[in-house]
Amino acid sequence: MFVLTGCQYLAGARSMHNSRNYAIFTGLLCAARSRLANGSAIDKRSFQRVAVQLSRNRKHETNVSALFKPVQVQANVDDDDVGSELVGKLEKSELLKILNKFAQRREIKALCSENGLDSYLQQQAFGSFRRYCIEAENLPVDVHITFSDIMQGAGHIDDIFPYFLRHAKTMFPHLDCMDDLKKISDLRQPANWYPNARAITRKIVFHAGPTNSGKTYHAMERYLSAKSGVYCGPLKLLATEVYNKANERGTPCDLVTGEERKFGISDTSPANHVACTVEMTSVNTPYEVAVIDEIQQIRDQQRGWAWTRAFLGLIADEVHVCGEAGALELLEKICETTGETVEVRRYDRLTELTVEDSALGSLDNVMPGDCIVCFSKNDIYTVSREIEARGKEVAVIYGGLPPGTKLAQAAKFNDPSNSCKVMVATDAIGMGLNLSIRRIIFYSLVKPTMNERGEREIDTISVSSALQIAGRAGRYRTQWEHGYVTAFKSEDLQTLQRILSQTPEPLKQAGLHPTADQIELYAYHLPNSSLSNLMDIFVNLCTVDDSLYFMCNIEDFKFLAEMINHVPLPLRARYVFCCAPINRKMPFVCSMFLKIARQYSRNEPITFDFIKRNCGWPFKLPRTILDLVHLESVFDVMDLYLWLSYRFMDLFPEAAHVREAQKELDEIIQQGVFQITRLLKNTEAGVESDTSTSHMRRMTHIKEPRIPSASRGRLTERLLAQGLLTPGMLSELRKEWDAQQLAQPNAVGSSKDPQDGATDSDDDDSYAANTKNTKTRRKRKK
């Protein structure tokens, strides 16, 4: 039998100020009592496992403490050394001995723990207090006299503690408000954040079914017949489709997305129906019917919070939720916290879907109506070029394309009279586009994903994603009603068949995200912390009911917060800027984001001329893939402008001009994508890019890199993975570089052309474009 010793009990009790430790420890004691009452032995391994868990929790607390940045404690500003006049000068060597002895006392460390100073904070505070006392010209009178008494034997060394604690609380302001911070970040009952929704009895209807089952159709019919309604979709394309369909059927409907507003009646007379992207959902407007589409996205690591907010917060008599059946159990559990029940309507697929017994094997076997799904731009470029080399026209769709270009490519593929019968696409076709596909061919089953820690992982495609993509084959009431699915590689076929034979894994948790109000309250208590630091502290201190919810990944938010940390902005404006939908992998977009933030901070309007000047307007048709990538980046910059224009109207006054320019740019990109094979050939042939040298340097901030002639570096692998470089291009670059090295053996790299017109702000752009060197550049500027 294993007996819990007094020391082990004490160790557990000391850690019980943390509620998580308390729950673990009391659980352990209850189990021990139960086993003893039954005459059973207590398993030593159980106690060891709990000890390990308690140890991990202590490490977690230390990691949280490290997030609190110390505030520098100012030296005593009194010119007169009153303490010395009263009791004489202090001997520095004796003072140092007292301070060291004070820091080593076990009783002092225990007092520190009781006041919220863990071992990490104690170490920081002791070191700071020691320097403060030794280096000060004169100490505050009360501190000076206390040290003098201790030296004279008239005082106890523990008398220093109140002054040390005062110093520590000045250094770490959170010590005085830790309870408040924990209350602010208590997210265990998010349903209570929406009192207006809780004040009514909502009817929750879950339309569960696979792709092409008609689930959304039935929900939309109820939406269109209602007196008022809101549709919440995952994509602008879907919201726009609902907006168009509603108005065509005589139901006036407004469109609200992050970048756009359209009105079914007029801008002065809002319609009773709204189609919006889920992030733009109003939780303050009452509706008769609300439709939340693709509810399984509630588990998304980046955007899941928006579905949670819509589901909990919509003020609607009826909330119709559409998605895969795996979301049902989670929704029912959430509804238990709101006192609501879920009515389930199940749908079966309307058309047949067959998984083929053989893989495609070769692109020679591609047939009309086929869609080859790739998970990287490099594969998109390679496959589309090889198919066109066989005399077949190809439609191309991937996530970075503007919505208009995606629709144009979809229309080209869907048109029976068009010569284009084959599509090459990423998983962007999984939702938002109506496509007439006969067969889905998975070029690969490996897809880059983001885990809960914001780290990039390469893993086999999930059951949910595979079913979503495969389900696009065989659309109801099209020329291809019977759908087929297969793999490109024979070695992938068995894995694909196994994946598609499964049902989607049940959803376990819904996403949450800190609100602007919560972060503002944090900033009130921690005024010296940066926004990125506040977010880190919030996420680490927050309490979440992890049986239902998780905290969404905030890495993109923090990336933007750190990028503009040096730009003077009010906290609320800084928070809004950091919520901007930006792809941080696009350096040009990031550099423009920084420029816009700097312009805003100076209270200077961001005009259309500003956009034209910095983006190289007017544009020509792209000649190379690099030109096309740059145009896509510029389109995203215009999206950013429009997104900000709805939040800061006074300083983004020319949204109408930017929108018109964006339409023109969309058409240029469409023409570029129609000729994507020619762009690839031009790139490999070394045709000079139309994008100006200065703009390309701003995009990449790379000075003619040394390209190894024998091996590929990390940069090369990254460019290949992003589709910005092909093996053929790499070979050509190696040849050119080797030839250049022979001609100029001492060349290191070209310097910046003085005619490029670079300014100080261009240096700031490089800060955004190459964040890995941020600290180095700051030091150089200093």
Automatic annotation (TrEMBL):
CDD domains in alphabetical order: DEXQc_Suv3, SF2_C_suv3
One GO molecular-function entry: helicase activity
EC number: 3.6.4.13
Enzyme class: hydrolase
This protein's name: RNA helicase
UniProt keyword Transit peptide, yes or no: yes
Family: Belongs to the helicase family.
Originating gene: LOC108609183
SUPFAM superfamilies, per database record: P-loop containing nucleoside triphosphate hydrolases
UniProt-listed Pfam families: DEXQc_Suv3, Helicase_C, SUV3_C, Suv3_C_1, Suv3_N
Coiled-coil regions listed: none
CC cofactor: Mn(2+); Mg(2+)
This protein's UniProt keywords: ATP-binding, Helicase, Hydrolase, Mitochondrion, Nucleotide-binding, Transit peptide
InterPro entries named in the record: DEXQc_SUV3, Helicase_C-like, P-loop_NTPase, RNA-DNA_Helicase, SUV3_C, Suv3_C_1, Suv3_DEXQc, Suv3_N
UniProt domain Helicase C-terminal: residue ranges: 346-523
Domain of life: Eukaryota
Region Disordered, residue ranges: 738-782
Catalytic activity: ATP + H2O = ADP + phosphate + H(+)
Location relative to the cell: Mitochondrion
